[in-house]
């Protein structure tokens, strides 16, 4: 082709060629090879098979006897999986599901179909969960799929307290078992859990596994065991071969240990969309009340904003929905040089890998949603409503996520459409509140029931379930007649209103107000910290220097008291859009927030002027 020639690519021709090959296959036209597996015949074209499979390419081009045969018997190949691979070779479409993917991967591995292997690998990694992670770790190890093996191993480490009782754990190879019990990343709060797991594996087949006793137990962190366990295990054992080994290890092992990752967990307030100094810039951070430190979490992908968030009982953190910026376009002429982002509402759904400090994509929701209410109820995640997601029908939609199947299904919609709502779970029932309305969803029957109305109508309030009751805190009071917000002067700036719902009596009553200085901005967030009902609150007006505090509720006295004042030198202005939840995270896997000034440069009296290297310096704004 000369330099002057134009190269034209006809994509329609490529599609047509594939369709013709598929037609020839379906009608068995010009087929030149018949694959026979388990008595089933598959007439095919050598050229097509050789194109997608290194195994068939070598078979048909080697000059060996198979290259001249018209019928080839394949052993150690699953017929159903071969049919899926052949269909992929002729169409480019691969049918994968949970029941077929592992057998398909094994067949594709034998036939060396790289594209199918890659698609199966991605599917399996995406589907790793607490129920299958041990088996998939062994599967990845068996087929030398390191990416799958490591992904599954991280889940085993994260869910160790529950998965070590699975039968698949008892079937682990000695190499994988030792790899786990020696890991620093096990999410266990007590070393007794690792000891129990190790002994259960050894006792599962005492005869064949007794040879590994010394090696396995040598990886236990003996000094992390309680004194009672040490005394019982190492000194009170009856004399036998096992006790001799155990007691010998106890005497020989050094008296120090590195704590497992789960032993370093701290309960933290996770703050979504914390404002930064630059307008329009946000970050995801967490504040540890115990250490009084701020840590940086990995931001959600694609600059995702206005998400819903939930933490499961197993401490899994999920976010859903939100919006992503599309492009920057110049705003009106009254603001020259200013840019305003346009956004697209999404149905994204992510799980937070706390060990890697990264967000892992899961199956997206069925509906796009901005700031949906997310709750965990009876083993499922529910996404409820959301702001500005279309018409009234869209705002009423509710869907449920199955963590094991990684799939969403729609359930009964809300009785009414809300632009804003808050949801909590009590006794495996979901309660959704907006303005003065409360609805209860009963998952077992799939029906919504209207409950007693609140005494006041408020929006943007926060809610938490505690001690079998629902606490509805703060928010902006609304006019029932017009639906609008009342002016700030009517809200009362000296305390925060609290209403409590008794689910058994189906009635609301007023509880003690929170004695915090409060202005019109609704910066009050209900949280449960250390099994106590608390609020995380901004106590100053939005235009003043931000000061945050944590108040705790005393149920017996019906009284709130200040639990912790948070210095503005630790936590900067989060603006009013932030939302928060509570979860346990690993400080060693996070970055200490770069916005926190070093404490050693502050003067003892807390003044903004302090001495540094002999000079007086003014504290910069945080």
UniProtKB/TrEMBL annotation:
Which residues does UniProt assign to the signal peptide?
A: none
Q: Which domain of life is it from?
A: Eukaryota
Question: Does the keyword field hold Transferase?
Answer: no
Q: List, alphabetically, the InterPro entries matched.
A: BACK, BTB-kelch_protein, BTB/POZ_dom, BTB_POZ_KBTBD2, KBTBD2_BACK, Kelch-typ_b-propeller, Kelch_1, SKP1/BTB/POZ_sf
Provide the BTB domain boundaries. Answer: 31-98
Keywords carried by this UniProt record: Kelch repeat, Repeat
Matching entries from PANTHER family are given as:
KELCH PROTEIN, KELCH REPEAT AND BTB DOMAIN-CONTAINING PROTEIN 2
Annotated protein name in UniProt? BTB domain-containing protein
């Amino acid at each position: 082709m000369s330099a002057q020639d134009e190269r034209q690519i006809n994509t329609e021709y490529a599609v047509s060629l594939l369709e013709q090959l598929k037609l020839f296959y379906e009608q068995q036209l010009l087929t030149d090879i018949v694959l026979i597996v388990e008595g089933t015949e598959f007439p095919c074209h050598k050229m097509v098979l050789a194109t997608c499979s290194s195994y068939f390419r070598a078979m048909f081009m080697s000059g060996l006897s198979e290259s001249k045969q018209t019928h080839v018997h394949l052993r150690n190949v699953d017929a159903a999986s071969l049919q899926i691979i052949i269909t992929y070779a002729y169409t480019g479409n691969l049918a994968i599901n949970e029941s077929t993917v592992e057998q398909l991967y094994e067949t594709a591995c034998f036939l060396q179909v790289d594209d199918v292997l890659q698609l199966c690998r991605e599917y399996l990694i995406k589907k790793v969960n607490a129920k299958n992670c041990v088996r998939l770790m062994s599967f990845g190890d068996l087929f030398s799929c390191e990416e799958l093996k490591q992904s599954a191993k991280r889940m085993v480490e994260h869910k160790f307290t529950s998965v070590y009782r699975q039968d698949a754990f008892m079937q682990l190879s000695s190499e994988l078992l030792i790899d786990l019990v020696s890991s620093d990343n096990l999410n266990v709060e007590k070393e007794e859990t690792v000891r129990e797991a190790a002994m259960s594996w050894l006792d599962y087949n005492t005869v064949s596994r007794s040879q590994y006793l010394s090696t396995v137990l040598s990886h236990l962190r003996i000094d992390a065991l309680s004194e009672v366990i040490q005394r019982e295990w190492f000194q009170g054992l009856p004399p036998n071969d096992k006790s001799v080994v155990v007691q010998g290890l106890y005497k020989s092992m050094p008296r120090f240990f590195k704590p497992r990752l789960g032993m370093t967990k701290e309960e933290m307030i996770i703050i979504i969309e914390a404002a930064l100094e630059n307008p329009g810039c946000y970050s995801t951070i967490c504040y540890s009340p115990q250490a009084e430190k701020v840590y940086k979490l990995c931001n959600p992908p694609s600059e995702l904003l206005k998400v819903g968030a939930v933490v499961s009982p197993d401490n899994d953190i999920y976010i859903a929905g939100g919006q992503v910026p599309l492009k920057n376009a110049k705003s009106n002429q009254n603001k020259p040089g200013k840019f305003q982002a346009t956004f697209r509402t999404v149905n994204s759904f992510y799980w937070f890998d706390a060990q890697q400090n990264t967000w892992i994509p899961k199956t997206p929701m069925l509906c796009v949603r901005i700031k949906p209410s997310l709750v965990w109820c009876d083993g499922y995640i529910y996404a409820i409503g959301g702001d500005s997601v279309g018409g009234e029908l869209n705002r009423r939609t509710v869907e449920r996520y199955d963590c094991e199947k990684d799939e969403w299904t729609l359930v009964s919609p809300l009785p009414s459409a809300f632009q804003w709502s808050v949801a909590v779970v009590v006794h495996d029932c979901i309660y959704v509140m907006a303005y003065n309305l409360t609805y209860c969803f009963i998952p077992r029957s799939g029906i919504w029931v209207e409950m007693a109305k609140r005494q006041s109508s408020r929006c943007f309030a926060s809610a938490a379930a505690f001690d079998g009751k629902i606490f509805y805190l703060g928010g902006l009071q609304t006019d029932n007649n017009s639906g609008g917000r009342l002016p700030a002067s009517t809200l009362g700036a000296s305390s925060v209103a609290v209403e409590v719902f008794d689910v058994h009596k189906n009635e609301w009553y007023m509880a003690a107000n929170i004695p915090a200085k409060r202005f019109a901005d609704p910066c009050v967030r209900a949280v449960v910290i250390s099994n106590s009902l608390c609020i995380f609150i901004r106590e100053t007006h939005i235009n003043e220097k931000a000061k945050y505090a944590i108040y705790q509720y005393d149920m017996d006295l019906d009284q709130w008291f200040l639990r912790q004042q948070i210095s503005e030198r630790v936590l900067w202005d989060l603006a009013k859009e932030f939302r928060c939840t509570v979860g346990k995270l690993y400080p060693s896997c996070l970055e200490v927030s770069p916005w926190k000034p070093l404490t050693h440069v502050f003067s003892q009296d807390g003044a903004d002027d302090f001495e540094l290297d002999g000079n007086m310096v003014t504290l910069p704004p945080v």
